[in-house]
Specification:
Elements: H1 4-7, H2 22-27, H3 44-54, H4 67-70, H5 76-85, E1 89-91, H6 94-97, H7 103-112, H8 123-133, H9 136-140, E2 148-150, H10 152-160, H11 162-167
Antiparallel strand pairs: 1-2
Helix pairs in contact: 3-10, 7-8
């Protein structure tokens, strides 16, 4: 049986080897094209991560999809942290992340503040009432869920490399 280094000897760089997927990476190697960096120093896996974040559904509680490890050869959490450090992505505030919480959860928060008329409030009214009754710091202590948002630098990369996204299996999120 071939070794990891033998299989990936002709790749521009070695992919990240997640122990959980080691057998899969030895039997079905990551394509060479997925280990070639762009002029900005990004791998195709970074661009696919930006694409996923751009949908607005990626959160700090989302599990990283297997394809980051088995198709793109990146350590998803480490590379997400790097994208944040480099200014491609940001972690949203508690207020920005409210959209991921249910209306009943918002009503719980407002009940604590003694807000009346909750049963008649629509989602937009609940969001407004939370903004009127909580500071960012107070709200941030109530829940841990935070969404990620793509920044202009990340949007530029997405528009520059549509061919990388086009090669990724498309699915509506």
């Amino acid at each position: 049986m071939k070794t990891f280094n033998t299989i990936y000897a002709n790749h521009a760089e070695l992919p990240y080897l997640a122990p959980k997927y080691e057998a899969e990476l030895l039997s079905k190697p990551i394509p060479k094209r997925n280990m070639i960096r762009t002029e900005e120093g990004l791998l195709p896996g970074h661009i696919i991560m930006l694409w996923r974040i751009n949908f607005g559904t990626y959160t700090n509680q989302s599990s990283h999809h297997k394809y980051f490890y088995t198709t793109y050869g990146i350590d998803a959490q480490k590379e997400l942290d790097w994208l944040i450090e480099q200014g491609y992505v940001k972690l949203d505030t508690a207020f920005d992340s409210l959209r991921h919480l249910s209306a009943p959860k918002l009503k719980e928060f407002l009940k604590v503040k003694g807000v009346a008329g909750l049963s008649k409030m629509k989602r937009q009214d609940l969001d407004k009432a939370v903004a009127e009754n909580y500071s960012e710091e107070e709200l941030g202590r109530l829940f841990d869920l935070r969404s990620y948002a793509i920044l202009p630098k990340g949007e530029t990369i997405l528009s520059k490399y549509p061919e990388i996204i086009a090669k990724h299996p498309q699915k509506k999120f």
